[in-house]
Amino acid sequence: MQQLPEHSVYQVQESKETADAVAYAFLQNTGEPVQYPYKYPNIADDDVRIRILYTGLCHSDCLHSRGLWDPTIKYPSCPGHEVVGLVEKVGTGVTKFKVGDKVGCNPQRWMCQTCELCKKGDNQLCSKGIFLYDDNNFGGYSTHIQVGERMVFRIPEGFNDALGSPLLCAGVTVYAPLKRYYKPNFTCAVIGIGGLGHLAVQYAAKLGMTVTAFTTSKNREQEIKRLGASFLSSSVDVESLKAEQGKYDIVINTLYIENEEIFKSHQRLTAPTGTYILVGLPPSKVNFKLDHAYIILNQIRVAGSLIGNYDETQEMLEFSAQNNIYPIVETFEFEDFPKAFDKMEKGQAKFRCVVNVGKWAQANGLWK
Amino acid sequence: MATKEHSVYKLVGKDEAEGFAWSFEGPNTEAVLYPFKFPVIQSHEVRIQQTYFGLCYTDCHLVNQDWFPINYPSVPGHEILGRVVMKGDQVTQFQIGDLVGAGFIRDSCGKCKYCIQGNDQLCGQMGDEHFIPLPKFGGFATHVQFPAKWAFPIPNTLPQNLTPPLLCAGITVFAPLKRYFNPKKEVGIIGIGGLGHLAIKFSAALGMKTSAISTSADKEQEAKSYGAIDFIVSNDPQQMAKASGRFDIILNCAHASTVDEFIAQTNLLKNGGDFIMVGIPAVNKVELQLPFFQLVCRQISFIGSLVGSRQENYEMISFANQHKIYPTCEEFEFHNFKNAYDKLLNGRPKYRCVVKVGNAPETLKL
């Protein structure tokens, strides 16, 4: 086994026998992640250490670990922010959870709870908010994760663990803004039926809206309608987009659209007084153009949205369990983490990749 | 004098005229006097003899075809104030002699989704009848005729010479401030001009902590006299950096002339905040661009607003009256209309141009 590099937070181990956990970590911005056994520093008073059952893979994991957002990222880097697991150990001050509880983690690691935005309830915008792998912490590509209890979520009864981990990021990313801006009689356009979009269709339909799916894949009509869409339309044909102008009270765009003309046509799908929601992020810091004349003349809101706050996330978990809303996933074994990452990186996942971590962890003596 | 005749308003000699308009016969031309007869008044309409009317830059954009081609002759103008001199027989809400005002909207259907919701300024069913300044004659005239529905009663306590700009500039800033109002919010008003100076007054009177953001450092005293608690010079990078992330609401009353300027404006917005856009510049002038990253990760919104509904107009008039909120105006005589228009188009009026109709047409040298 190659000599593994040291990490600033976690003590690298020679083998899993002495480790608290085994991660799949990137040692540089290219290549595959490799197994990285490690020990935790002491558990903080308010920390919860979690045995991961399932981890979802999200495209932003690539943007992070390949250094596409921040080229100064430190290695080894272990991403992953869609976690479902069981509490293994709690710090002395933990009151919300006990050993054995079924819990989840989302992209945020910590919120201050004292700044104006936290007090308003929008902890995802916390001025001191820390995201899961900030300060080079390890995320969910691991057998374990250790996070402050304030950012750990309770997994509701009846939740499908094997399917549900992507909801912690992809689910709340679409659920939160849909719920924030919707009215039950609205017509809803979902642009892009991929990892985010196929969940948006389900939530929008379950919230009572009439959903039109805008996609390039006309051959998936049956499947998309089964998810809850009433109609399908082209997301790229400018003429057909023009015919849909001003028809949708709420539009949720899960894609990054490079073409200016198409992006303008998407904004114009929005009905007067409606909301156009942007959640998809591009690979780099590119600009988009606001169609300001249309926005002003029709009193449109163009709104960005970032995951969701704590309450929205918890609510989403419960709404999903109650209404049987889950992503369509491809599941991989723990040792196939690199394969799962590759499939997701190449955009070939249908629709999200999930790794069954718990099975390997238990079989390999990591549940100590 | 006018040579091009409009299909609806008969061009006549001054002795038979029911009204005198200032007409534009092409883009980038001077207005010419157009004595006219109205078509027969419809049962739902009122005819107004104006006391004062206002000029708005949107009128210039329309006349000069900055946004779309128009037909000529064109008599725009949409800040109307005067007395009812004639009314259709279905009009019961006004009497002859009542003082009324009107703004950008001419008519709405009352039946569509937007009308029923209370957003009748967004009614899409009226085609050519929707807007006052075109294609029918608008407010640049001694008399105007339009549906009584969009005439607003004006209280006697409002000074008439300062009222017309409230009916466009006023409602344009009042409506979104009220729509997004919250007593805890901090508001930033960008641009202290026709829209901005009224926005500061309305926002402060609504009880929100209001700051003014301007390129003109010498407007600080003035902004504070309108109720601003703070003043930020927008081309001073230090001041802008200090105000970074400060405002829950930004009401943009001065379009950025470069992308960098626009991005600097958005930096003043708090995460989760609302950037309100009113006033449309010439279509190809400036692209409002922003990194996707900023929009999503800061969870900010860009929101448009278009004048206001009838309901919002009634509220605005009542509120302005209560709080004595008036625009700062430069006044011109009716026969000197060209000077008013030229000042607006090429000069920098402080802050709105108003024309006194007075006893025109007697004052016209015809």
UniProtKB/TrEMBL annotation, chain A:
<dbReference type="GO" id="GO:0008270">
    <property type="term" value="F:zinc ion binding"/>
</dbReference>
<dbReference type="InterPro" id="IPR013149">
    <property type="entry name" value="ADH-like_C"/>
</dbReference>
<keyword id="KW-0862">Zinc</keyword>
<keyword id="KW-0479">Metal-binding</keyword>
<dbReference type="InterPro" id="IPR047109">
    <property type="entry name" value="CAD-like"/>
</dbReference>
<feature type="domain" description="Enoyl reductase (ER)">
    <location>
        <begin position="25"/>
        <end position="355"/>
    </location>
</feature>
<keyword id="KW-0560">Oxidoreductase</keyword>
<dbReference type="InterPro" id="IPR002328">
    <property type="entry name" value="ADH_Zn_CS"/>
</dbReference>
<protein>
    <recommendedName>
        <fullName>Enoyl reductase (ER) domain-containing protein</fullName>
    </recommendedName>
</protein>
<dbReference type="InterPro" id="IPR013154">
    <property type="entry name" value="ADH-like_N"/>
</dbReference>
<comment type="similarity">
    <text>Belongs to the zinc-containing alcohol dehydrogenase family.</text>
</comment>
<dbReference type="Pfam" id="PF08240">
    <property type="entry name" value="ADH_N"/>
</dbReference>
<dbReference type="InterPro" id="IPR020843">
    <property type="entry name" value="ER"/>
</dbReference>
<dbReference type="GO" id="GO:0016616">
    <property type="term" value="F:oxidoreductase activity, acting on the CH-OH group of donors, NAD or NADP as acceptor"/>
</dbReference>
<dbReference type="Pfam" id="PF00107">
    <property type="entry name" value="ADH_zinc_N"/>
</dbReference>
TrEMBL record, chain B:
<feature type="domain" description="Alcohol dehydrogenase-like N-terminal">
    <location>
        <begin position="43"/>
        <end position="155"/>
    </location>
</feature>
<dbReference type="GO" id="GO:0016616">
    <property type="term" value="F:oxidoreductase activity, acting on the CH-OH group of donors, NAD or NADP as acceptor"/>
</dbReference>
<keyword id="KW-0862">Zinc</keyword>
<dbReference type="Pfam" id="PF00107">
    <property type="entry name" value="ADH_zinc_N"/>
</dbReference>
<dbReference type="InterPro" id="IPR013154">
    <property type="entry name" value="ADH-like_N"/>
</dbReference>
<keyword id="KW-0560">Oxidoreductase</keyword>
<dbReference type="InterPro" id="IPR013149">
    <property type="entry name" value="ADH-like_C"/>
</dbReference>
<dbReference type="GO" id="GO:0046872">
    <property type="term" value="F:metal ion binding"/>
</dbReference>
<feature type="domain" description="Alcohol dehydrogenase-like C-terminal">
    <location>
        <begin position="194"/>
        <end position="320"/>
    </location>
</feature>
<protein>
    <recommendedName>
        <fullName>Enoyl reductase (ER) domain-containing protein</fullName>
    </recommendedName>
</protein>
<dbReference type="InterPro" id="IPR047109">
    <property type="entry name" value="CAD-like"/>
</dbReference>
<keyword id="KW-0479">Metal-binding</keyword>
<dbReference type="Pfam" id="PF08240">
    <property type="entry name" value="ADH_N"/>
</dbReference>
